[in-house]
Amino acid sequence: MTATVAPDVGRGEAVLARTAAADRRRVRSERAVLWAGTAAFGTAILLFWQFGLGHLVNPRYVSDPATIAGRVGELAAEGEIVRHVGVTLGEAAVGFAIGSVLGLASAFALAQTRRGYAVFEPFLVGFYSIPKIALAPLFILWFGLGTTPKIVMAALLVYFVVFVNTATGIREVRPGLLQVCRVFGASRRDLLVKVTLPSAAPAIVASIRITVTRAIEGALLSEFVASTQGLGYLVARASREFDIATVFAGIVIIAAVVMAANGLLRFVEGRLSPWHGGRVHG
Predict the structure, then answer these.
(1) Considering the entire predicted model, what is its pTM?
(2) Membrane-spanning regions, if any (predicted)?
(3) CA–CA gap between residue 98 and residue 115 (Å, rounded)
C-alpha cells in the first residue's frame, strides 16, 4: 500500500511543478508583450512629436524631444534637477505626513459616532468642493513665499482623501459583527484594534498610496503660484521667460518623479497587501 501511495504522490508533485512552471512562463510572456506594446506606443508618440507635430503646431510652442532631452541633461549637469526635486519632495513629504496623521485621527474620532460624522460631513463636502487653486494665493498671503504654504496645500489635498476613505472603511464594518464581539466581552480597544482597523486597512493603505502623488501635486500647485524654488517654480519661471524647452523639461521631470513615487508605492503595497485591489475614493 505504501509503495502504491508513493508513486501517486510523486506524480502529483510533478504535475504541480509542471503547472507552476507553465504559469510562470505565461506570466513572463504576458509581461513581455505588455512591455513591448508600451515601448512601441511610446516610441510612436516620440517619433510623431519629433517629426510630425511641427507640421500641425508652431514648433516654437512645443519644442521637440531631442531638444527637451538636451535641456534635461543641461539642468542635471548644473545641479538644478537635484535641487528643485529635493525642495518639492521635501515639501510634499512633510505635507503628506501631516495630512495623513490628521486624516486618520479625525476619521477614527468621528466615525465612532454616526451623529458626529453626519454633522461634520456637509462642511467637509463644501470645503472639498472649493477649487484648490483658489486657496493657493491665500496660503501664500498668510504664510509667505517659504515652504509653509506648500506644505499646507499638500497636507490639505492628502487630508481629505485619507479622511474620506478611512471613515468609509470604518463605517462599512457590519454592526452585527461589533455586537457579537461585545457579547463575547470585547473591550472598546479590542473592537478598534482587532475588528475596525483590519476591516478599514485596505481602504487606508490604498488612500495613503494615492495621496503621495496628491501631496506632490499640492506642493507643485503652490510653487506654480508663487515660489523661489522647486519644480513648480522651475516651470513657472521658464514659462514667464518663454523658454519652452525648459517648460517641457520641467514637465517631464515632474512626470518622472510622480511615476517613480507611484510605482514604488504600488510595489510596497503589493508586498504588504497583495490581496487588495486598491480601490479608493477621491
Answers:
(1) 0.73
(2) 32-51, 92-111, 123-145, 151-170, 191-212, 244-265
(3) 26
